[in-house]
Design goal:
Elements: H1 3-13, H2 15-19, H3 28-32, H4 50-68, H5 70-88, H6 94-127, H7 129-135, H8 140-153, H9 156-170, H10 180-201, H11 205-224, H12 232-239, H13 242-252, H14 260-289
Helix pairs in contact: 4-8, 5-6, 5-9, 6-8, 6-9, 6-10, 6-11, 6-13, 8-10, 8-14, 10-11, 10-13, 10-14, 13-14
């Protein structure tokens, strides 16, 4: 067989051999004057949207709180009921009774949203739990708002039970209990934002727990006790507490002719403080997550 026939057979059996460059030949890109192209990175997935992320965090926190926080919610409700029974011996009725029932009802929100949320975020920061949320493709605001909304909404049953018991104990009308549908989320947002900020800004877990306990004690002393018997300095300090406006809005509904303009104003203050406190908590979360 001739050399020409042998080369033709080899080109058919081994196609790459025919197209392979000869030793010492320049690359194809070098002959055309073009640089070799680098591999392009794969495009990243789009970031998660705010509201779906908020709903996912809210559902996760609500399912967690439903299991772990039921005993503590019972303690908060029992505590408020015990305070009303204790105050029944020194308060007969009128504005003082309205203040006791409204303050004891909002105290359930303060116990869970302020105290427990401060401890929760303080524990997350101390135990490295914030690193888990930092790796998730969710906006930081959805983490804070989802946890705050779950803790605040979880307090509605205990607040309603406390309010009904207080109305029966002091002989107050129940026609205004529907206002709790606005008081609980607005006061809960303000207190939950404050609790989250305290837990995230505290340098140690013990300090976060202490801050939450002090905040709940302030809500107890300044919210349950009738303001008519307080010194002026304590009344001014009472006006600085976010839960005070929720207590005032709820207490006004027990009157024979409620001042609805004042009720709307108090609820508006709760909402404004809630937006401010949740914004501070979101900033504190970003600050703690990157450290």
């Amino acid at each position: 067989m001739s050399d020409r026939s042998t080369g033709a057979v080899r080109a058919v059996l081994v196609p790459d051999a025919a197209s392979a460059p000869a030793p010492g030949a320049a690359p194809a890109d070098a002959t055309t004057g073009r640089a070799p192209t680098a591999p392009q990175p794969a495009p990243l997935a789009p970031g998660a949207r705010f509201f779906p992320s908020l709903a996912a965090v809210y559902r996760a926190q609500l399912s967690r709180a439903r299991v772990a926080r039921i005993p503590l919610l019972f303690v908060a409700t029992f505590q408020s009921v015990g305070i009303m029974i204790l105050m029944r011996g020194v308060v007969d009725g009128g504005s003082e009774a309205r203040a006791v029932v409204a303050g004891s009802s909002v105290l359930v929100v303060a116990f869970v949203a302020l105290n427990l949320l401060a401890q929760y975020f303080g524990q997350l920061r101390a135990g490295g739990g914030l690193d888990h949320y930092a790796t998730l493709p969710v906006p930081p605001a959805s983490v804070v708002l989802g946890a705050a909304a779950a803790y605040a909404s979880f307090t509605l049953p205990g607040t309603l039970v406390t309010a009904v018991f207080g109305c029966l104990l002091f002989g107050l009308p129940m026609s205004g209990l529907w206002i709790l549908a606005a008081v609980v989320p607005l006061a809960g947002a303000a207190l939950a934002g404050l609790g989250a900020a305290l837990g995230l800004l505290a340098p140690r877990q013990e300090l976060a727990t202490l801050a939450g306990q002090l905040g709940m004690s302030a809500a107890l002393l300044l919210g349950v006790l009738p303001p008519e018997r307080m010194p002026d300095v304590i009344v001014w300090a009472r006006d600085l507490l976010p839960s005070t406006y929720g207590v005032e809005a709820f207490a006004r509904t027990f009157e024979a002719s409620p001042d609805w303009a004042a009720v709307v104003f108090d609820l508006g203050v709760c909402g404004a403080v809630g937006v401010l406190s949740l914004s501070v908590a979101t900033w504190a979360y970003r600050r703690a997550a990157v450290r």
